[in-house]
Design brief:
6-stranded mixed sheet, single chain, 144 residues
């Protein structure tokens, strides 16, 4: 029975060491209209849309990069999310920067435990960095 507890503790420890945050691209989608069947291609319009098609807005999409992310990889994520929602285009696309931090769950737990034991404990500095953000509106063309 002891070896099962020890094995469980080792497995949990290794799992926590592997749990990191702030190291992946993530996206947020806020639906603002009807959903549609997935599409195979999505047009991208930085800034205001001046095209010929009337459209309905279906979602607001935000993609936040990881450390050293570049625009092309964030555009691929944005397009994938827009296609899955049935969008024909993403309009009013804007870029900005935001601060993120990365670390591991294990470090956070050790930091928490250390603060309980000692008043003099100073936690290690988090890895903070600026990264690229893409924001846009996914739309479905009406006149196609």
């Amino acid at each position: 029975m002891q070896w099962k507890k020890a094995a469980s503790l080792i497995f949990l420890s290794l799992w926590l060491l592997g749990c990191t945050y702030g190291n992946t691209i993530y996206s947020e989608v806020t639906p603002i209209g009807n959903s549609h069947l997935p599409t195979s291609d999505v047009e991208i319009y930085f800034g205001e849309y001046n095209g010929d098609y009337k459209y309905e807005q279906i979602a607001y999409i935000r993609v936040v990069g990881r450390k050293y992310s570049k625009t092309p990889e964030l555009l691929e994520e944005l397009k994938a999310r827009a296609k899955s929602m049935g969008a024909d285009a993403v309009i009013n696309l804007k870029t900005s920067d935001t601060e993120r931090e990365s670390g591991s769950v294990a470090e956070s737990l050790i930091e928490l435990a250390s603060t309980l034991d000692s008043v003099e404990y100073e936690p290690p500095e988090k890895d903070r960095y600026m990264t690229l953000v893409l924001d846009g509106v996914a739309v479905k063309y009406k006149d196609m």
